[in-house]
Fold:
Amino acid sequence: MSALQAHNAEAILRRLDWTVIRRLDGLLQGDYRTLFRGFGLDLADLREYQYGDDVRHIDWNVTARLQTPYVREYHEDREVTAWFLLDLSPSVDFGSGEVRKRGVAADFVAVLARILTRHGNKVGALFYGEDVDAMIPARSGRRHVLQILHKMIARPAPKRNEPTDLGQLLTAAAHLMRRRSLVFVVSDFFSVPGWEQKLGQLAQRHEIVAVRLHDPLESNLPDIGMLVVQDAETGEQIFVDTHDRGFRRRFAAAAQKREAQLRAGFASAGIDALELSTDDDLVDAIRRFADMRKRRSRLAAGGSMPKHLELMQ
Structure:
């Protein structure tokens, strides 16, 4: 790591430490464990169901035998191992403003990795560019977070003529992660089809969160005249006339169709998606995601919904 690149990684982490990490750590107040459920759980005991218990923990076999609802109690493994599956293919270097999707991804990884490692957990990373080309083992500590961050910002953008295949990244992760882990798939999900099935297979063993990167220009084109548009994956260029309302409508319709396909893919895999836009506030985006997860957990347990969340329905 060069002195300049090390300084850049250190500067990014220092900036986020003051502006984002401390705010989120205080707001979550340890609830990141409840937000990312399902790893390191060992059955401890059975007891009768009480009002407010999570209905997902009901043991239906015991309930049927005793004719009384019983729930399973678990001991949680205190150490969490988290993995960041990082799509750094050419399309991730796009950004219509000052911020690019790769920068948003770097900020997110720095924030979550730092929060997790501050609480004694381990984080690792798997990198995908032209293919799965690098891996940083799961460890803890601030220097380790800096190593992952440096690897993200220092690597050059890949140059190729083939589209992204996220299936390769997910397949490599399935072979790498033997222990049940918390997994963040950080990508814009511009990929050839087939990744949905592999994401679902990965979710059967691990706790998965899809972190989707996007830019407003990918959904709507402004009326700014003739443009040269280049496919970031293949390098193909075409002229488009954004004065043409019909073209803008077709572009928006194609974007909406892709949006629907993405949401269907996440739903079929049984996972939640955290949306990160280049024009959004990182803290707000993570807080919205946290509120959604808490709301779902509360409803699953049969509890009532807080007033401020009822307004979001």
Q: What stands out?
A: The longest strand covers residues 41-48.
